[in-house]
Amino acid sequence: MARVVSQNKSAAVNPLKSSQPLGAAFAFLGVDGAIPVLHGSQGCTSFALALLVRHFNEAIPLQTTAMNEAAIIVGGADRLEEAILSLKARTRPRLIGICTTASVEARDEDVAGDVENIKRRRAMELVGTEVVVANTPDFDGAIEEGWSKAVTAVIESIARPDKQYRNPRKIAILPGWNLTVADIEHLRETAVSFGLDPVILPDVSGALDGSIPEEWMPITYGGTKLKEIRGLGATMQCIAIGEHMRRPAEALQRLTGVPYVLFRSLTGLENVDRFIRVLAAMSRKQTPLNVRRNRMQLQDAMLDGHSHMAGKKIAIASEPDQLFQLSDFFTAMGAEIAAAVTTTGTSKALEMVPAKIVKVGDLSDLESLAATADLIVTHSHGREAARRLGVPLMRVGFPMFDRVGSQHKPTILYRGTRDVIFELTNIIQANQSPPTPGPRGSTDRRESQ
């Protein structure tokens, strides 16, 4: 069990984490016809918007209540009502997702109560639009908690109990924030190959997959439909991916009675085998031939990559669930976790990280711990630390703004794990020093063995 060491600095140097409101907005973007709204100052929204646009290279429908100093002092209920009604009239969204920021959370505003009052007073004007609130202060938690809170709020506000009927082919899948567009598409394809009908919430593969609509839209196009969310009570089983998705899975079970099974990771042979066994049990079908073939390809990739990864020292900085996902995979391939840095120390996933110490900190902490590492694994903001240390960087997580197509890289199930092995092995090989030839006639002792 890893020992979690808390943050002991008064300021972040080269910050690692992204905020809760950004995580909540990210999750709302996975619902069809949605528009996230950050309830706070315009600067908070601009910062989140810049990161999302740079990461996805897409136009992101993100709005703000644009709280100024006076609104922060007297309260933001009027500004929130104005924003909701304006967005309803101009863009006609099917969902408005309110993400609170420190500006309103610091003065302990009852935003959920304000929204309920607005919905009662303006019921006729808001017909056809759901308004959901996620309490996500910037000063606490990180992107992982924001994503989890938004998904929980959507389920509690929209899903309807339906304990009378269960569709034996319909399942609910709650993916974590760290799954890419390609991961979610691969999840759906795999579930469908077993004859199952998955409802994925949130489904960013439909909204942030890079497809271009015929005309510009001010709201999300694609993603989980509200009708599917309302019908979650008719699913037979819920699959939650990542420890931070336990909370929404429990909310769904409490509301509808749908049982859930939690997977902390779907990367690595053993984790994927367990997932496939669950799908086979739910569908009562044998594993499809293409899935079996993918498993054999992964086994071959593991044999090819093990000799390159064995004994390598890896330094990782990421959110708790992604930290566990990657460190568990690296150690299974024979590598050693030399440094582990994360954003928040409250996740139970940190206890399972295969490292002696997990440091809650920033990228400067990672840099100080990674001097002897063979590889640094973090998002694009880690490139300066990697360059100063002369250590190669494998980019994962959010944001990735200096590479194109990051959302189309699979990282889970047999095919995704195989591709991660290939990427990692290629980085290691590209940064190995070539052997220095000795004097003519001499023989390297290691080669002679």
UniProtKB/TrEMBL annotation:
Keywords: Nitrogen fixation. The keyword Signal does not apply. The keyword Cell cycle does not apply. Residues 19-428 form the Nitrogenase/oxidoreductase component domain. Gene3D superfamilies: 6.10.250.1090, Nitrogenase molybdenum iron protein domain. It comes from the Bacteria. It holds the Pfam family Oxidored_nitro. Belongs to the NifD/NifK/NifE/NifN family. NCBIfam families: nifN (TIGR01285). This is Nitrogenase iron-molybdenum cofactor biosynthesis protein NifN. The lineage of its organism: Bacteria, Pseudomonadati, Pseudomonadota, Alphaproteobacteria, Hyphomicrobiales.
